[in-house]
Amino acid sequence: MTRSPSAVVRGGRRAAEQRLEAIDPARYGASRNHLDGAVTRLSPYIRHGVLTLAEVRDAVFARLRAMAPPDAAVQGELFAAQPPAHGWSAAQRRAGEKLINELGWRDYWQRLWHQLGDGIWHDREPLKTGLPAEAYAPDLPADIAAAATGLACIDGFAAELCGTGWLHNHARMWLASYVVHWRRVRWQAGARWFLQHLLDGDPASNNLSWQWVASSFSHKPYLFNRANLERFGGGRYCRGCPKALAGCPFEASYEVLELRLFGPVERRREGPHHASPQPGPPPSAGVPPPVPLRRPLVWVHGEALGPANPALRAHPAAPAVFVFDAALIAGTTATTGGAALASGRLRFLRECVAELPVQVREGEVSAQLLAAAAAAGADGIVTSAAVDPRFRVIAARLEAELPLQVLEPEPFVSLPLRGDGAPDLRRFSRYWRRAEPLVWGRPAGVFHPVPRP
């Protein structure tokens, strides 16, 4: 598929700030499920730390603060019905609630990735479809990858994914549902395909969302029908689809589709709703305080490609290095499930890195960083915390040779990742009951963009 210039998502802080300035929380909340809705398209920048969740959160709050207040009579009625918490009126809270909630989902997925590590590639729970594991094929069918199924919607989604590196969240769910439930393909195959192409290819959000669709991290499988597609897709696919008049596999009620795909309800196996916790990274308690570095080298990685990077802010005059990870690019790591990065993903990353004051290298990350440190006469390496388990492997190699300091970025919400006080992550609703009051309860001041280094 040939990409049009308007379809190309540009990398870098300047492009990210333009997107950020254009957000409209109220319009987002009202239209986000529609393919032509007012979605933010900030996810590629958040994924790579060009923008942090904390920055986006504060920008949303600033936008809500700027809302025109209601007239005195209406304002009085609203406050009487629901007194403002921490200065938020009911109208402001209602306008921003959905967008803040979606940022919460991102934080939730990251916390699970931190807890599970590469376990995000394994079923969290038994499937709720009643079908055995052997009923699902291990590989993505060629006609889906080639956008050649003959279904206008599915082919349109596949072409957009591979051609632009971006796909509306509703389209992602429809495409994932088709792959897993209609074509009986393991969700891991679809997850790898998405991570190969998506500019916002975050393994946590991606894999756990695929599991939500598949029903290995939800109470039931996610399905869609033609009525749902036409309502939120604006009819753009069905009008020209060769199977619209006869042969559409989505033309039925949900009850009928469930029966066709999974058989009678009483035959479906109901496993436990929550799998046993899997081992994650060790707790950080007891780590000795860092030794002050006089000549540090800053390691900038792919989760912190923005000016809010705490290592860049702490050491603005120090030499900084970004390494294009040869193994990640080639697809030999668990981060992408073994899928090589598509050219669009690499182009986006290069554009993000190009705006930073860093030396760019490529190869095995720890070897390149140690070589750069030796060349600069560095007495240690400073970087920002990352969630990807691969970060811990690289960090261990570095620590065997040089002191390594890992600085924490500003969190989206002040909740511990582990131990006492950490939220229950078995379902988003449990996490959000803890997180939401803290997010909305923080001082809602004016948004101050982080200056470029």
Overview in brief:
The protein contains 19 helices and five strands. The protein has 453 residues and is mainly alpha-helical. The chain has a five-stranded parallel beta sheet with strand order 3-2-1-4-5.
Give the CATH topology of the largest domain: DNA Cyclobutane Dipyrimidine Photolyase, subunit A, domain 3
Structural class: mainly alpha
Principal-axis shape equals globular
* Arithmetic mean pLDDT: 89
In what range is the share of β-strand residues? Answer: 5-15%
Helix content: 40-55%
**CATH-level-2 architecture of the largest domain:** Orthogonal Bundle
The tally of strands reads 5
Could you walk me through the main structural features you see in this protein, from its secondary elements to its overall organization?
The chain has 19 helices and 5 strands. Helix 14 links the parallel strand 1 and strand 2. It has 3 domains: 5-121, Serine Threonine Protein Phosphatase 5, Tetratricopeptide repeat, CATH 1.25.40.80; 133-267, DNA Cyclobutane Dipyrimidine Photolyase, subunit A, domain 3 (Orthogonal Bundle); 296-407, 3-Layer(aba) Sandwich (Rossmann fold). Helix 2 crosses helix 6. The protein has helices at residues 13-21, 25-31, 43-47, 53-65, 72-81, 90-116, 142-145, 152-164, 169-182, 187-197, 203-214, 226-233, 254-262, 310-314, 326-330, 343-354, 365-376, 389-399, 428-441, and strands at 296-300, 320-325, 359-363, 380-384, 404-407. Helix content is 44%, strand content 6%. It has a 5-stranded parallel beta sheet. The model is unreliable at 1-6, 71-85, 271-287 and 444-449 (pLDDT under 50). It starts with 12 loop residues before the first helix and ends in a 12-residue tail after the last helix. With 453 residues, the chain is mainly alpha-helical.
